[in-house]
Amino acid sequence: MRMHKLILFDCEHAFLDIYSKDYTVFDARRDILVELNPKEPIILLGMFDNPCFTIKNGDAFDNFVAQHLNRAGCSCTVDDFKSCYLKHFRKVSWWDDMVDFTNSLAACDQFHVGIVASLCEMDLQLIKEKIAWKNIDYCFCSFNLGVQRPDPGIYGIVETVSGCSGDDILLVSDAATNSPLAMFRHWNTVNVTGENFPVVQKSCMDFLEGCTEFKMSGA
Q: Which segments in the chain show pLDDT lower than 70?
């Protein structure tokens, strides 16, 4: 019988190596600017930090991007921009240990595994290329919710959709960004830096105490 527990991974902090010496999101943004060569690069660069970039989807997102491309003096189409975005963001470094561990957790049907992310709609395609998506129970992406973390409304959405609350939830995230709100709702939390994989792994295993099936087949 499935345990009424949910491990929720903060995608940006749990998986992406934002401080990588190899290639980061900032390198990807730079290369997008180099390839698209806008007349006003500051305008296009500013689009990435605009909240609308991560909370809009579909036609609303396309219109938002088109407006910035036009204002920045880019001759490319929205589809060209999306292809360019995916090409360069595929080069961003991920924490392989965290990805493998998440996939092993998600493969077990004794509890729930979810992802929370303040990412744009193209990023979901990148996540699916790394994470065994068919095994993920819940995905709380800002572009589908219309709000992004640390908006407290997201925490209520997680509880309503998953049916889990309080001590039944473990949030694997950046402490400074999300833990205070999660702790206010009595969630379990573990700070993730990418480099502290053993700590995260132990916290997850402690949270899943009693799940003998995962202990036998998991990490």
A: 1-2, 175-179, 210-219
